[in-house]
Amino acid sequence: MPITSNGQRYLSSMKPALRNGCPKSFRSIRGPALLCLWLSLVLILPLTAFGVQGDSVEEKIFKANQAYKEDRFTDAVALYRELTTEENENGELYYNLGNAYLRSNQLGRAILSYQRARLLMPRDADLKFNLRYALDQTRDEVPGNRDLFTQAFFWLDAFNLKELYWGAAAFNLVFWGLLFIRLFTKAEWTYYTFLVILFLTLLASGSFGIKWYELKTDRRAVILAEEVNVLAGPDVKDTILFKLHAGAQVNYERDDDGWALIGLSDSKRGWIEKGNIERVVRPR
Amino acid sequence: MRKFFWASMILGLALLIPFQARADISLTLELDRAEAVPGDSIRMVVSLSGVRESESDPVISGLENFIVNPGGRSSRIEIMNGNVTKGVDYTYFLQPKKVGTFQIGPARIKVDDRSVQSNHVSLVVKKASAQGDQSGDIFLKTELSKDNVFVEAQTIYTLRLFYRIRIRDVSLGLPENPELTFKQLGKPGEYQRTIGGQPYQVLEVRYALTASAAGEFPLEPARMVMQVVQRNRRSLFNNFFDDPFSSPSRPQTVVSEPLVLTVHPIPDAGRPADFSGLVGDFKLSSTLEPDHIKAGESATLTVQVTGVGNVNRIPDLKVPEPAQTKVYADQPTIQTENTEAGSGGTKIMKWAFVPEKPGIVEIQPLSVSFFDTGSGAYKKLETPAYSLSVEPGREPAPVVVQPSAPQQKAEETTAKNQIEELGQDILPIHTNIHRLAKSQSVFPKNGLIGLGLFGPFMIYLAGFFLTRLRKTTPESTAQSKARKACKILVRECRRNELCHQELIENIRLFINDRFRLSIGFLTSQEAARVLREKGVTPETTEKLQALIARIEHAIYTGQGQNRTDMAAEACQIAEAIEKEVR
């Protein structure tokens, strides 16, 4: 039963009692009762909206999954795309979208979706498997590029940013809590515990900070078209420097009037049309 | 004279030839018959003689009551008795639109800026017989499987074209009525039939005919228009090799006899409340797969309604949602098909049930009502009630490892096969709807980051300043001293180097700090008085009084109890005072 109709029935049954010359016994609780009513409205209405929104999202998810199971991959892609907006991201939906793209022979978009899913659920075994499968289908060998920090903090790939944040926040809370305790007692155990917690806090906060920086400066992009010419300048008449194919991962440096400047890690750079490429981390 | 004669002869001949030529141009109009019936195809030829070509085609009057189809143009040269005649023939095929006597012609044509006119002819068009022309080289028959039906019920309308001549390009004109719907059943069929000893080819087309309103509907005759291939008169042998698509042909129309369809209204008596207008003959089937699932998984109920009739009227069934179960309806699909029995099809409806908790989910029966044209009564089709068994969600099964005996292990060691990869594909999609519906984001919200990272620091800072403020006020200092007085005394007493003087001094400091006094010189009586005032028990008071007396005795006489014992006793008494006063 939707909450709204229950809430409305509740309100309508309360109103006459409050409005029509309340008996003495009610007058004393009128104020608190009105306050309760107001609080209920403030709390229930957002829940109602959430509930209604949740129902339509679940129905769409079901229809998308059904379309995929019945091999209607184009319909499945359209429905999953509707669900995965910038405001409402979900790693499992991106994974399903990647599958639907792959079945529709859109390799570039499949890899893009899988990479976006990896930002949210980096340890998912199914995702790793399917992404590996999709990358094996690409035609271009693009060299990888890992900086010193990423190599030193090797565990960063196994956690998403929110998990690292909660880890840092938890250690941070314990650290300052311990210092707070030491305001009142200087027992020896607090000192040694403090040293351990300090180390862990620095490690967790450092990991979070590096991951944050990585994502903020993440300029990875995926080639979407089957084949694109990479030109020397932002004009169709410019010299073709090299070709790239669907699924190739490049660095998105900047854009200019419908063209994007991309680079590969081995210093190859050039311009391609913006419609043929999309960034993994959406710019904010 | 002779020269003048021959010159005039030559001149005269030269002038006469054009006149002679002009005098030979003629235009004639002729029909291949004088009488016809509606549907016949009459051949009309307009012949222009004396020239090989004209500037334009002839204009023929009197053709308003005919459908005119051009049949082509041909040139001819005839040599007869030494005379050479040139000409052009224009051929037309006329189909009468109504009965009557008509004058066709004259035809007019322009040749060398001169207008030439033909003769005119009469044609009598008589009414066709009531039964239509059921004999001859070609005729059309129609029939209804049932001429008494209900509204929206089907009857089969069959057209059969019987012919024993070569025809091509057949087109059909059906009776038109806004309340009648014709739906072709399959492709036209062809077969042979012998009528009156004569073999005929039969072209048969069948339609499912439904009426959307009650009443009597006269069905006008159907018309079939075709091209009849002309026989080549010159040689029967040549006819064998004639290509029907390139041989000359003439248009022909055949009409059928009229029919009457009586449509009765669907009776109101016994009409179910959920009747949607579905008329025909239908069957219903349903399945629930699987019927054993875990909470959070889905089971699909499929309902299929199949039959002959107006399948578009099969209603979209509504499934009541069981408690604690989400129901998702799929888009219904309709597949139409045309069979010998008529036009029908199948409507498939699916629902997914996703129970949230373990137990038994009861799925109520679904029903569809229709009007059975066979029995002339309403019927109700119903699915059975289903029970869906729901088990708790998946838990990891406990793994039991049976260590094998050493001997058994040795025996079990066998050569292992390399796992060969036979194919590659991706893993399937994730289907847990609750996890798919959770909203996530790559970056945590800025407010949350601030709270998580700086919140504890702010709390610590607040605590730090609070504690600092407390220490600076005299009241807080005194309170702090009072709390710590006993601990300080105990700590001091545990120092082994404490002398009697220092011991009594520490006891004095304890009394002063604990009770916020400023006693300069502590005597046993003074200590006892203070303790009594502060509510310490008489027993503890006496103990302290006695201890102080012994310490004083030791100070002044140099004799007495061991310092360490006195210090330990002082600690015990201080802790007892602390407990009694708190």
Short summary:
By secondary structure, chain A is of the alpha+beta class.
Overview of this protein structure:
The complex is a heterodimer of chains A (284) and B (582). Chain A is built from nine helices and seven strands, in the order H-H-H-H-H-H-H-H-H-E-E-E-E-E-E-E. Chain A has 284 residues and is an alpha+beta fold. In chain A, the strands form two sheets. In chain A, strands 6-5-4-1-7 form a five-stranded antiparallel beta sheet. In chain A, strand 4 and strand 5 form a beta hairpin. In chain A, helix 1 packs antiparallel against helix 2 and helix 5 packs antiparallel against helix 6. The two termini of chain A are 39 Å apart. Chain B has 582 residues and is of the alpha+beta class. Chain B is 26% helix and 37% strand. In chain B, strands 22, 24, 25, 26, 27, 29 and 30 form a seven-stranded mixed beta sheet that branches. In chain B, strands 11, 13, 15, 16 and 17 form a five-stranded antiparallel beta sheet that branches. In chain B, strands 1-3-6-5 form a four-stranded antiparallel beta sheet, with no helix packed on it. The A-B interface holds A 54, 57-59, 61-63, 65-66, 68, 87-93, 95-96, 99-100, 102, 119-120, 126, 129-130, 133-134, 160-162, 165-166, 168-169, 172-173, 175-177, 179-180, 183-184, 205, 212, 215, 281, 284 and B 298, 326, 328, 330, 352, 354, 424-433, 435-444, 448-449, 452-453, 455-457, 459-460, 463-464, 467.
